[in-house]
Design goal:
This protein has about 350 residues and is α+β, with helices and mostly antiparallel strands. It has six helices and 20 strands. About 15% of the residues lie in helices and about 30% in strands.
Length: about 350
């Protein structure tokens, strides 16, 4: 049972907006620890969102960077208004499940760019859910000083009063590592990126990377269509795959190349000799740009005759990787024309 709010030393601290959510840092393996030391949650592929309900029951839903989501996701705002008490702040993820039961980030993107006029129609045709995994304030009292274990108990008490088959959903969580490993191995088929792992005894720290994220990654092949940086020291690669019509489509970019990787790849790149299948600059969303980057991608085009193996997570938007992928090695033994988009294999 959670510590009563009025007895906790942090209970009367006032929160001030806009709110910076707690963040997670990447890890490559499960952390060690005693049973019950860690809480494991599925890492959903959606929009991070905090919902603030003020003393007049006004609702404000903000993005990770503080942008207003109210007009984009009216069904979430309405559900929060209906079921969450005043002077409460929730932290969670807005997600869209498609008819096949897979997370659909592309639908979220369409909602984000559709504008106010289409928001109501899309809320009906492509409704979203708000998966809540943390609690920052409850009935006007700051609970960020409570442990995650205590905050979770309060959140479960709150959701016991909320209809289960609605827009609001309590985020999944387990304290059992064996169960978390099963989630990690199986949930990727539904578009779940991996796990967020949190110390059960930790308080909520805004803007701090106090959580861990363990992403599920798999190797794949891609065709190099261009590079960023200098010809003798490329800093990154622009990647593509062929579709069923024989078009080389941009699918992403690599993370920063190490000096060793750059030295390995540079001699294998041939300057484009004629017409290239891609424009000379790429919109940032075309190639997994870093979070928040809005500038077009300037790069040097090369002949698309080299295949590389990369390590990618499960987050995709259409045929593109949403996050930069890690370069592993060149695959000079493979024919670029045989590197086909996954959804076109067997079509």
């Amino acid at each position: 049972m959670a510590t009563p709010l009025h007895q906790h030393k942090h209970a009367r601290t006032r929160l001030r907006g806009p709110i910076d959510p707690e963040l997670a840092k990447s890890v490559d393996s499960f952390p060690s620890g005693k049973p019950g030391q860690w809480a494991y949650e599925p890492k959903l592929d959606g929009f991070r969102a905090l919902a603030v309900i003020d003393s007049d029951r006004g609702v404000y839903v903000q993005s990770r960077r503080g942008a207003r989501f109210n007009e984009i996701f009216p069904e979430v705002v309405w559900a929060v208004y209906q079921h969450v008490p005043e002077r409460t702040i929730l932290d969670g993820e807005i997600v869209r499940w498609n008819s096949a039961g897979r997370l659909d980030f592309g639908a979220l993107h369409r909602r984000n760019v559709a504008g106010r006029r289409r928001a109501a129609a899309l809320a009906s045709s492509e409704p979203c859910h708000y998966a809540v995994f943390d609690l920052l304030r409850l009935h006007g009292q700051d609970v960020t000083g409570l442990s995650l274990r205590e905050r979770r108990a309060l959140l479960e008490e709150l959701f016991a009063l909320i209809p289960a088959a609605g827009v609001l959903a309590l985020g999944m969580q387990t304290l059992v590592e064996a169960e978390a490993r099963t989630w990690y191995e199986s949930m990727h088929v539904a578009g779940v990126e991996g796990l967020v792992i949190k110390p059960t005894g930790s308080r909520y720290e805004s803007g701090v990377r106090g959580w861990l994220k363990l992403k599920r990654r798999a190797s794949a092949e891609a065709v190099v269509g261009g590079y960023i940086g200098r010809v003798k020291r490329p800093s990154g690669l622009l990647l593509g795959r062929y579709d069923s019509a024989g078009r080389l489509r941009v699918v992403g970019r690599t993370t920063q190349l190490t000096a060793r990787a750059a030295a390995e790849i540079a001699p294998l790149l041939s300057p484009a000799a004629g017409a290239h299948p891609w424009p000379t600059t790429l919109p940032p969303g075309w190639a997994g740009s870093p979070y928040g980057q809005t500038d077009p991608i300037t790069y040097t085009q090369v002949e698309p005759d080299l295949v590389v193996e990369v390590l990618a997570d499960t987050a995709k938007e259409g045929h593109r990787h949403r996050h930069p992928v890690k370069y592993l090695r060149p695959r000079t033994d493979l024919d670029p024309l045989q590197v086909i988009e996954e959804r076109d294999v067997g079509a």
